Amino acid sequence: xxxxxxxxxxxxxxxxxxxxxxxxxxxxxxxxRIPRNLVxxxxxxxxxxxxxxxxxxxxxxxxxxxxYIGEAENIEERLKQHLKEKDFWTECLFVISDRNxxxxxxxxxxENSFYNLAIKSNQYKVINKNEPSKxxxxxxxxxxxxxxxxxxKILINTLGYKAFEPLVSEEKLEKExxxxxxxxxxxIKAKALMTSEGFVLLKGSQIIEEVKDYTPNGYKAxxxxxxxxxxxxxxxxxxLFNSPSAAAVFVTGKNQNGPKMWKNKDGKTLxxxxxx
Length: 276
Hints:
Layout: E1 7-11, E2 20-24, E3 29-35, E4 51-59, E5 64-72, H1 75-85, E6 89-97, H2 104-121, E7 125-126, H3 139-158, H4 170-175, E8 181-185, E9 188-194, E10 199-201, H5 217-225, E11 230-231, E12 234-235, E13 239-241, H6 244-252, H7 258-261, H8 270-275
């Protein structure tokens, strides 16, 4: 059973795009965000502690945010190295324990775990060249680290970085089978799901090859944006859209009224479902 949680975000510069700390009530971990240009003048004492960090940038080739996952016994020193060696990132997140009780084995375990979560979610392009090594820790320590990871994910998501959560998890698909929407058009079939992030066109959906000339340029651009996500006119991963209509146009190649096109397994349109 999920319980409500209290999260406190402190804007350290008084600006939404500046330095920030994020903490969860009754948990000793804390996540910080710092823009790259402020690393050398952060005045954050916790930046010198042991922890895990995430360099965030944007990859023009894949139209995705990019991430590098690392660990350090002194995060500040490592970030200053990355200022010289890595130019892709524009901001950094790092997580520490206020008790400063994370040791080298803990942060190696966390680094490996976050790397694999990022790879599995496929939301960001992972910049790491190799999978980080995973340390061996006791069962008791592993239980603590699993909780540490779960709480860190909550805080990072709250700050707006969805690097470790897939658009639609396998568990969500299993639980929400009744919520899946279908679009059958000519000889193609597509499936989708409404989520808190937006309208997700599910992996394996088929699309019409031709895009009509009168289709608005904004919708045409979606075919270009997601061209690497299509193989043999079928989506190879889940794709996020702002609206049901955008997904319907993407699938059919022409203007469509999404709420009328998408239907559940019983044939009710999305519009009918939302009205009820």
